[in-house]
Amino acid sequence: AQSVTQLGSHVSVSEGALVLLRCNYSSSVPPYLFWYVQYPNQGLQLLLKYTSAATLVKGINGFEAEFKKSETSFHLTKPSAHMSDAAEYFCAVSTGTASKLTFGTGTRLQVTL
Amino acid sequence: GAVVSQHPSWVICKSGTSVKIECRSLDFQATTMFWYRQFPKQSLMLMATSNEGSKATYEQGVEKDKFLINHASLTLSTLTVTSAHPEDSSFYICSASTGIGEQFFGPGTRLTVL
Questions:
Q1: DSSP assigned state of A22
Q2: A96 to chain B, minimum CA–CA distance in Å?
Q3: Angle formed at CA A56 by CA A30 and CA A87, multiple of 5 degrees
Q4: CA distance B21 to B94
Q5: Neighbours of B22 (CB within 10 A)
Q6: Interface contact flag, B32 A102, Cβ < 8 Å
């Protein structure tokens, strides 16, 4: 069984500030981990994914995430927030890149001036 | 590349009617397609997994007779909500996969049942 916990349903940061969105996972097998972004009334766009290679994964739009097995975490970070980063972010886990995904409850990121 | 479309993008129907939602992979062949539903301000919940040419696998609690899934070709899967009721109102999102790569998501279909 797999599950994902996203701490903080809503995160607010100032433009230019560090973005940190938390994700912890539970998996009985080595996990594949994903971060997706969703803008209002749209589908999901893949930001980055961990597939058992490098533990520090770089994605699009300046985002990155680090896989920490000891902490069962896969937190998403971005050094400097932009207004355009305001969206809903979902962490997800699966047993393979093409396997069904189990999503966290999502974190809404608000970026203020 | 790797574009997935959904049609319609939004639909309003009367209670008791059936609604069909199409999911197409435009530039690749999708051996597997997934259907999710998302309630307002909530996460995506997997409804079913469909492989081309075979019956869909439904998640626990999803009524297969109510949510009919057909994956007749490598580029098209359809979800039919039969005898829709207001509680079926939701955002339905499909994703498509080649089977060895990542899932690519469609833009979603918003269903409102009056």
A1: -
A2: 8
A3: 95
A4: 10
A5: 17
A6: no
- 3-state DSSP call for residue A62? helix
Contact yes or no for A110/A92 (Cβ under 8 A):
no
- The sheet that has B67-73: what strands, in order across it? B4-7, B19-25, B76-81, B67-73
Measured in residues, chain B has a length of: 114
Q: Give tens-digit pLDDT for A85-98.
A: 999 999 999 987 66
By C-alpha distance, the chain B residue nearest A49 is B102
- Taking the C-alpha atoms of residue B104 and residue B96, their distance in angstroms, rounded to an integer, is 5
pLDDT for residue B106 is more than 90: yes
What digits encode the pLDDT tens for the residues A26-83?
988 888 999 999 998 788 899 999 988 789 999 999 999 999 999 999 999 999 999 9
The answer to whether B44 and A90 have CB atoms below 8 angstroms apart is: yes
- Taking CA atoms, B39 is separated from A41, B10, B93, B94, in Å, by 12, 14, 11, 14
CA distances from B41 to A25, A98, B37 (A): 21, 26, 12
Burial of B80 per CB tally in 10 Å (0-12, 13-18, 19+): middle
Subunit contact A101:B49, Cβ cutoff 8 A:
no
- Quick one: which of B27, B11, B35, B41 has its CA closest to B98? B27
Residue-wise pLDDT tens digits, A39-50: 987 888 999 999
From the list A41, A46, A106, the residue facing B110 with the nearest CB is: A41
pLDDT at position A50 is: 92
